[in-house]
Amino acid sequence: MQIQRRIVLILVLAFVLLALRTPAGQAQSFRARIEGIVTDESHAVIANATVTLLNVNTNIQVVRQTSTTGLYVFDEVSPGTYRLTFELTGFNKFVQENILVQAGGDITVDAALKTGSVQTSVTVTETPPAVEFNSSNNDITIDQQMAEDTPRLDRNSFKIGLLDPSAVNTRGENLPYNSWGPNSVDLGGGTNLQNELEVDGSPIGLGHKSTVVPNTDDVQEVIVSTNSVDAESGHSAGGTIQVTTKAGTNEWHGSAFYLGRYPWASAEANRTTFSANATRQNMYGGTFGNPILKNKLFNFFSMEYWDIGEAQSYVSTLPTTLQQAGNFSQTYYLNNGQSGIKTVYDPYSTIISPTGAVTRAPFSGNIVPASRMDPITSGLMSQFWAPNNPGANITGVNNFEAGYVETFHYYDYSDRTDYNINDKWKVFSRVARYHTTDVSGNPTGNTTGLYTPVGTLRAGWQVTGDAIYSQSATTVWSFHGGWDNIIDAYVSPNLGPNGWSKVWPNNDWYSNYLNPAINNQPVYFPYLNIGGSGFGGGGFYWNQRPAGQAYNAKVSHQIGSHFLKAGVEMR
Prior knowledge:
Elements: H1 2-20, E1 32-39, E2 50-55, E3 61-65, E4 71-77, E5 80-87, E6 93-101, E7 106-108, E8 111-112, E9 121-124, E10 139-142, H2 144-149, E11 167-169, E12 185-187, E13 196-199, E14 202-203, E15 205-206, E16 209-210, E17 219-225, E18 240-245, E19 253-261, E20 268-270, E21 275-276, E22 280-293, E23 297-316, H3 321-324, E24 332-335, E25 338-341, E26 351-352, E27 358-359, H4 375-381, E28 400-420, E29 425-440, E30 455-470, E31 475-491, H5 516-519, E32 528-530, E33 533-535, E34 540-544, E35 547-559, E36 562-570
Parallel strand pairs: 1-7, 1-8, 6-9, 13-18
Antiparallel strand pairs: 1-4, 2-3, 2-5, 5-6, 10-17, 11-12, 13-14, 15-16, 17-18, 19-22, 20-21, 22-23, 23-28, 24-25, 26-27, 28-29, 29-30, 30-31, 31-34, 31-35, 32-33, 35-36
């Protein structure tokens, strides 16, 4: 009767939680479950056997008793390497070593106890097969060793998922600060930009963009799910990529790396012209894991920094000194192999005959008189810099060629803390950030608004926390929350409220546009297109700064040989 009431209570709780669940579904847990059945030599189930699960890296252990049906369950198990010990008076001790628990795993380890003394033990050191009997997901797991050994210069942990044969990259932006990059992948079909991305169980996707991407040295494992059909998976029209970060252990350990790329050490960029590779690249970083309180409190820190200079070229056609003064007597055209002086006509001399024929007279000597020059145009002409070559042909096209360096400064860091408070409570938290600037150099030597170096600002934060409460040996609660944001901006420098007065010094026609009460928008230098060459400010491209949060709560309960799980999530 008591068991029936408990079943009804759990079913009611599950119904309420599922009813409250958001329509998009739940996030898949990054923790795992270990379960199995304990029997004797006659294959009869054994009740009340003591089962101890030990994390060999942190020395934290959890104890359970088998149910009346011989079943034991350890839920919300953090990824790592474990040892299971089975004990009962009148039977030999049974020890299963080297249990590799991966994120989201559901591992079954059965034990058959033999009659004998508890002091006698049977130890199995061979790793149990990773066969999941309780999930229909089609997953591939890239473990820590494979993640570290995969030679990806972009160090984007989500792109490690491309090791899955069914994963196809759909975008050229693969660097960790390219916010579209992580979700630009087809997982077993047309799922581009429709996949669920998670780090330690927290979503990092804001629309199609992603927030902080852990560097590869911070990764414990990557799981790619191309067929996530469990009720615990959702928020995705495609697959799921889960990244689990490393946690601290009882050992002090760390790593460091440096990657340098210099022209003198690089292969020739062009073996015909014998030109050197001009890219300069400095990348360094490291990790550090340590116990704060042995067997209880652990920390793991990771960081990296990039300083990259990429050689770029700038080619443009500039007005010559004569052209700036209105003198076009040496301005040529070239058309189908024919060339000559390009005639400049006086627009005020235009005559339209009664028959519709249009005639006009050229300026004398092909020179525009100074009196006919607009003062605003004259002011803009004075801001041009001089050409540095005669041009590619008689027309003077491409008469300015110069190189410059586009500089990337990028860093990311992550700090994770795991705390085993007592037998009932354990918590973890993680703070991560990335920041990058992309700044183009100025090859012109000109400081006017006719050449405006542009660049991008990309940054993001992620703060996440998790708490596990073991209410009893059969009931476990999980509470998870996270907040993240993105800055993705590509804009020209703002000239300020008085910026246009330098272009139109005696005409404030634009004043209403600068009135904060009417149109409080940035002011950019006007963009000029002269013969196909662009000058001036590039203006506004994009400036996106979304933020989001996600919270979920789950409960799992074992009743005899049955295991019930329900949860609710809000994003």
